[in-house]
Design brief:
7 strands; 46% helix
Length: 252
């Protein structure tokens, strides 16, 4: 049985919501009745994602913005605008992020800073900006995108797993701090997923990657989005501080 209307009358902000897992999350939430404000890296990409979604279903309540997630003032002003228009924010999905695979010998310090800024500082900025509104309205839900590398590490590009370890720490700490305000904080740690990057890889490379996954294939973005939906809904009303692995039991 498929449950419908899990997010009826909910307002959700999804950062990094223009493609890949982020767009799948936006689509899943819209299907369940939420009003979505998706954030993109540029206003043009946000507008393009909104147009695509409205072509799929003209009844979707979705809009797009492009604040600088590394600038707390810009983030706070953007959340204030959303509150002014909609009156409340019930769900925040911190999905925006970048990765890297350079070896330590080739890693530029400024590139390490860039990853930490978007993958960690942006989560802090958005969470800090939204928490008072959630508290004042009786609670809410924050979901962060982690990664399987936050558990296992990876053989190169140390900034990315370091940032995702930090995401896990933020998640667990904020869950403990904000629980008294009715705010649940969780994270989803996807494994190899069929985003555009994986879809464009040679078939033999995908087969090699899949060999380490007991389920025998990469995940679909919609399968990852299903877990975000569960955590955002009242079905997960007693779930907080969790890092949920969605990786097909990947062996590394």
């Amino acid at each position: 049985m498929i449950i419908q209307g899990l997010l009826e009358n909910k307002v959700a902000v999804v950062t990094g919501g223009t493609r890949g897992i982020g767009l799948a999350i936006v689509r899943k939430f819209l299907e369940q009745g939420a009003t979505i404000i998706l954030f993109g890296s540029r206003q043009e990409t946000a507008d393009a994602a909104v147009a695509k979604l409205r072509e799929e279903n003209s009844s979707y309540s979705v809009s797009g913005l492009a604040p600088n997630l590394n600038d707390y003032t810009d983030v706070a002003q953007t959340f204030q605008k959303i509150i002014d228009e909609y009156g409340h924010i019930d769900i925040l999905v911190n999905n925006a992020g970048i990765s890297a695979r350079e070896s330590l010998y080739d890693y530029k310090p400024e590139d390490f800073d860039k990853i930490m800024d978007l993958n960690v500082k942006a989560i802090f900025n958005c969470s800090k900006a939204v928490a008072p509104y959630m508290r004042d309205s009786g609670g809410g839900c924050i979901i962060n995108t982690s990664s399987m590398v936050s558990i296992y590490g990876q053989p190169a590009g140390c900034g990315y797993p370091a940032s995702k370890f930090a995401v896990n720490g933020l998640t667990k700490s904020l869950a403990r701090e904000l629980g008294k305000d009715g705010i649940r904080v969780n994270a989803v740690a996807p494994g190899v997923t069929k985003t555009d990057m994986v879809a464009n890889l040679p078939k033999e490379m995908v087969e090699r990657i899949s060999a380490g996954i007991p389920l025998g294939r990469p995940g679909e973005p919609a399968e990852i989005a299903n877990v975000f939906l569960f955590l955002a809904s009242e079905l997960a009303s007693y779930v907080t501080g969790a890092i949920v692995s969605v990786d097909g039991a990947t062996q590394v």
